[in-house]
């Protein structure tokens, strides 16, 4: 009794899993400030861009989109020090095409300021914190690095790279999803052959 439904269903699940994979691979686009007129002065309040950022969840693979009038504005990707000081001169990555996309490829903090120091001082600046897909440290997130408390050269096993563990697990996640779906589809086919 071979009804047509068991023959169709593996194809259905393959298509479903392809759709799932596509949706997992694609990050979200975030227009900075929530609308296209946000990267400019005057701001609603000096902190309005960071208030906006705090209400969002940024993940690896997402994209920030800065939309602005490039005859009056630009965007500098800076370090924290230059961010705090509104320092517009330095070894910065500068965007000035009016529609700038910045791909968030790793977890951590990213600092942006206006290329105009005066505008930065009026609040045209942004910190985006990108979450890692899973907790970096199990249970001990706020404990200080152990190596700082050990001036003696004894335990050489403690490498100084303790804080550089930037998890980039999206690839692993991707592979495990593929493997999971593969075994799922395999089970479906075996089940239907029986
Ligand atoms: C950009 O700014 C310049 C100078 O203020 C202005 O003349 C121009 O109309 C603006 N362009 C747009 C698209 O708003
Ligand atoms: C500027 O920064 C880039 C990476 O962000 C680095 O490779 C380069 O060496 C830096 N240049 C100077 C002069 O610091
Ligand atoms: C400014 O924006 C206009 C229109 O979006 C673009 O044609 C131009 O190349 C931009 N200028 C620079 C310096 O990128
Ligand atoms: C954290 O890791 C240790 C071993 O490294 C494990 O025994 C413990 O159960 C883990 N705690 C949590 C909350 O996962």
TrEMBL record:
Pfam families: Cu_bind_like (PF02298)
Subcellular locations according to the entry: Cell membrane
Residue span(s) of domain Phytocyanin: 28-132
Membrane topology: Lipid-anchor; GPI-anchor
Keyword vocabulary terms for this entry: Cell membrane, Disulfide bond, Glycoprotein, GPI-anchor, Lipoprotein, Membrane, Signal, Transmembrane, Transmembrane helix
Entry keyword Cell division: no
GO cellular component: plasma membrane; side of membrane
Coiled coil stretches, renumbered: none
Molecular function terms from GO: electron transfer activity
Membrane spanning residue stretches: 174-193
Endpoints of the signal sequence: 1-27
Record keyword Disulfide bond present: yes
Lineage top rank: taxon: Eukaryota
The family this protein is said to belong to: Belongs to the early nodulin-like (ENODL) family.
Function: May act as a carbohydrate transporter.
PANTHER family, alphabetized: BLUE COPPER PROTEIN, EARLY NODULIN-LIKE PROTEIN 10
Protein name: Phytocyanin domain-containing protein
């Amino acid at each position: 009794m071979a009804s047509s439904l068991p023959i169709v269903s593996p194809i259905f699940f393959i298509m479903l899993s392809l759709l799932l994979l596509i949706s997992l691979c694609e990050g979200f686009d975030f227009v900075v400030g929530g609308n296209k007129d946000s990267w400019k002065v005057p701001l609603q309040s000096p902190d309005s861009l960071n208030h906006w950022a705090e209400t969002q969840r940024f993940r690896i693979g997402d994209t920030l989109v800065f939309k602005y009038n490039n005859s009056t504005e630009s965007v500098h990707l800076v370090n924290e020090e230059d961010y705090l000081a509104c320092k517009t001169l330095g070894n910065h990555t500068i965007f000035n095409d009016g529609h700038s996309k910045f791909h968030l490829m790793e977890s951590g903090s990213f600092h942006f300021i206006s290329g105009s120091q005066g505008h930065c001082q009026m609040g045209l600046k942004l910190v985006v914190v990108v979450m890692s897909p899973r907790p970096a440290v199990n249970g001990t997130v706020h404990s200080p690095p152990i190596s700082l408390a050990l001036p003696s050269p004894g335990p050489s096993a403690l490498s100084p790279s303790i804080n550089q563990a930037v998890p980039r697990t999206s690839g692993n996640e991707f592979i495990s999803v593929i493997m999971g779906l593969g075994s799922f589809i395999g089970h479906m086919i075996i089940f239907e052959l029986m």
